[in-house]
Amino acid sequence: MIKEQRKTAGNNKKIVLYRKKVPKICYTYCMDSIISHKSALEYWRLHGKAKTNNFVGQRRKSLPVSIPKSVSIREGAHLGLSYPINLMIGCQKAKRKSRIVRARVYNGPIPYGSFVGISDGLSTSTPPFCFFQMAGDLPLVKLIELGFELCGSYSLASGIRYSKAPDLGKGNERKIAPEGEQEDTIEVIDKNLYGRQQLTNTKALKKFVAYMKGVNGYKKAYRALRYIADGSASPMETVLIMLLTLPCKLGGYGLPAPELNRRVEIGNTAKRRSGKTYYKCDLFWPKANLTVEYDSDFYRTGANRIASHSEKRFNLTALGITVITVTSRQIRNIYEFDKIAELIAGRLRKRLRYEPMQFTRARRELRDLLL
Question: Rg of the Cα trace of the chain?
Answer without folding.
Answer: 25
